[in-house]
Amino acid sequence: MLLPRKKVPDLKVPLVGGGEFDLSAETSERGTVVCFYRGLHCPICANYLIEFEKRVPEFAERGVGAIAISSDVEERGAAMAEKVEAKNLRFAYGLDLKKAKEWGLYISTSRGTTSIGIEEPALFSEPGLFMITPEQTLYYGSTQTMPFVRPHFSELVAGLDFAIPNNYPARGEYTGEV
User: Fold this and answer.
1) Interatomic CA distance for residues 77 and 40, integer angstroms
2) Which DSSP helix (H) or strand (E) runs through 132?
3) Per-residue pLDDT tens over the stretch 4-59
4) CA separation for the pair 53, 63 (Å, rounded)
5) C-alpha span between 47 and 16 (Å, rounded)
6) What is the CATH superfamily name and number for domain 29-157?
């Protein structure tokens, strides 16, 4: 389990269009929003990532980078980036499912062809949204077992508008007896 204020697992994945995303090499002043999505087969992911794409400039104004990552192969990752008309949001693909489990993501098995006519991969990770500090520690985290009921990016932006001027710490760090 990831813990607030503790270092998260290393994360290196190839980027759609070339290059590599390396969390440890990120240079955003206040950190990076990492959005793990299910893959091209998921219409809910596409709608969610369209909203993320719209909010990337707002995150950037607050000194926060943004990336969307899936375990899809390169072609499917590129197709999702094209589907959401990504101009600001970086897309990465090829997330190793062992790495997904390190991040606390749930893994699902294929149920065949989805409602939009795209075959699910044999195994894929379910959604997760994380805000990682420049020191590579967990500031915010949310994981789901289902494709629906996800955190709203507008609420994360609003949360940053409170947290930044108030130097609000990551919460949920207590691990002692209760």
Assistant:
1) 7
2) strand 128-132
3) 999 999 999 999 999 999 999 999 999 999 999 999 999 999 999 999 999 999 99
4) 16
5) 19
6) Glutaredoxin (3.40.30.10)
